[in-house]
From TrEMBL:
Keywords recorded for this protein, A-Z: Nucleotidyltransferase, Transferase
Protein name: diguanylate cyclase
Chain ranges of the PAS domain: 9-72
Record lineage: Bacteria, Pseudomonadati, Pseudomonadota, Betaproteobacteria, Neisseriales
Enzyme Commission number(s) of this protein: 2.7.7.65
CDD domains: GGDEF, PAS
Length: 317
């Protein structure tokens, strides 16, 4: 191959190419590197790489290059470990939060006639597009995952998620001890709300009640929509007295102010049933059943009430 052909390829190859000797002096600097760094080959060749580019991660890069001299093997770095070696602009209109050109690098040992590595040549690949797509894919997957856990109307957790969360919390208590309270609540006479104010009015009540309750829980509590107008609150590390206080506060909070639906005020109340995790509970279903029974007694005793499950009082219906 003629020298001119070789020079042509080195300059037009479309990746960054540079080479250093054992003292880290630059021996090769192709046009790609010149264009992106703003330093021409004439300005950098013969100079120490780290003196020309003091912003390079010297300790890490020197070790990497020295290892190629010593081990006489190729070495690689990926943008996932270190997003970039040189702070090059990427010129992408949609960056997805990516600041500089993302780079993969290959370090090649170039041996002399004596078999020793005399030069290390570094190939720098622009992998910004792949990095952007991977980040977008991860974001999309996170959003899908998030959406699959949420109830479309109210934005709180859906039944699938909250049942799973309850099972996890029960396992945690069984293993590490502590207390766990479960509250189920249901909007009172909700059929009448729908009949009187229409389905959209009913929906507004569901949304507003969810928001009020969500805003008045601890960060560690988990609120979910369990059914049409039925909700569940998992309260980890909460005993019966605390859970009762919380439920009473929430009940009052819902009843205190009507839900505003356009020009109309819709009064809403809730009935609640709560129970605590105990050794005899085998599964989430056992706990839910007790909370449901207590909720039933709240309905039966006049609604707008909180009932704590008591096995001596709350018998199967
Ligand atoms: N607007 C609206 N209504 C819903 C939704 N899901 C369930 N519902 C309604 O909720 C009502 C529940 O009625 P019931 O189970 O008879 O209970 P209730 O009228 O609340 O009576 P009590 O629970 O005994 O106080 C039904 O009319 C359902 O159509 C929803 O997403 N939006």
């Amino acid at each position: 191959m003629s020298a001119s052909l070789r020079d042509f390829i080195v300059d037009e190859v479309g990746v960054g190419l540079f080479a250093v000797d054992r003292q880290m002096n630059l021996l090769l600097w192709n046009r790609y590197m010149a264009n992106h760094s703003g330093r021409t080959a004439d300005q950098v060749l013969g100079h120490n790489l780290f003196e020309v580019f003091p912003e390079l991660p010297r300790k890490w890069l020197e070790k990497k290059i020295q290892s190629v001299f010593i081990l006489k093997n190729f070495a690689f770095t990926s943008w996932e470990q270190r997003p970039w070696l040189f702070q090059f602009d990427h010129n992408r209109p949609i960056t997805g939060g990516i600041d500089y050109m993302q780079q993969n690098c290959t370090f090649m040992p170039m041996k002399g006639e004596n078999g020793e590595v005399e030069t290390v040549c570094v190939v720098l690949f622009d992998v910004t597009d792949a990095a952007i797509y991977q980040r977008m894919l991860k974001d999309a997957m996170r959003r899908v995952e998030e959406a699959s856990n949420r109830d479309g109307l109210t934005g709180i957790f859906n039944r699938r998620y909250i049942e799973h969360a309850l099972t996890t919390e029960i396992k945690r208590v069984k293993r590490y001890g502590g207390s766990l309270a479960l509250t189920l609540f249901d909007l009172d006479h909700f059929k009448k709300v729908n009949d009187t104010y229409g389905h959209l009015g009913g929906d507004e009540v569901l949304k507003e009640v969810s928001q009020r309750v969500a805003a008045n829980l601890r960060e560690t509590d988990i609120l979910g929509r369990y059914g049409g107008e039925e909700f569940m609150i998992i309260m980890p590390a909460t005993d019966q007295e605390q859970a009762y206080q919380v439920a009473e506060r929430l009940r009052e909070l819902v009843a205190a102010e009507p839900v505003i639906f356009g020009e109309i005020n819709i009064p809403a109340t809730t009935s609640m049933g709560l129970t605590l995790q105990a050794d005899h509970h085998e599964s989430a279903a056992d706990l839910i059943h007790e909370a449901d029974l207590a909720l039933y007694y709240s309905k039966r005793n006049g609604r707008n009430l909180v009932t704590c499950y008591d096995p001596a009082v709350h018998k199967e219906i």
